[in-house]
Amino acid sequence: MPKLTPATNQIALQEREVVKQVRDLMEACGWRYIRMQSAAVKIDKRIIRSGEKGIPDGLFLKYNPDRIVWIEVKQKRGCVSPFQRSWHDVERRKGATVLVIKDINDLKVWLRNEA
Fold first, then answer.
1. Measured in whole angstroms, how far is the alpha carbon of residue 10 from the centre of its chain?
2. Cα 57 from Cα 36, distance rounded (Å)
3. What pTM, to 2 d.p., does this model score?
4. pLDDT digits (tens, 9 = 90+) for 12-49
5. Residue 102: half-sphere exposure toward Cβ, Cα within 13 Å
6. Phi, psi for residue 20 in degrees, rounded to 5
7. What pLDDT digit, counting tens, does each position of 69-105 carry?
């Protein structure tokens, strides 16, 4: 449920709500969405990790021409962690497109520039 921010009287969306907007828009534009996730679970004395620490929220694929875009979604005031920044930098050096989206309008601008 969106929250009203007291200072601005604007609606502040939860990150999951922005993720849904991003997913819906990208899928409407012909992109395939794959949810990415990293986690750590402690079992007895062992820590079991899945995924890569710092990996973005979603991977989007588009065929013909082949395109891959990593998208990290943050709330308006959210920040990219040092692990995320490092992960993004490594992928960008390999030629990947990595976006940090705080508002659906950020994505709309990127999509307009890509057309």
1. 22
2. 5
3. 0.76
4. 778 889 999 999 999 999 999 999 988 888 999 998 88
5. 7
6. -65, -45
7. 999 999 888 999 999 999 999 999 998 999 999 999 9
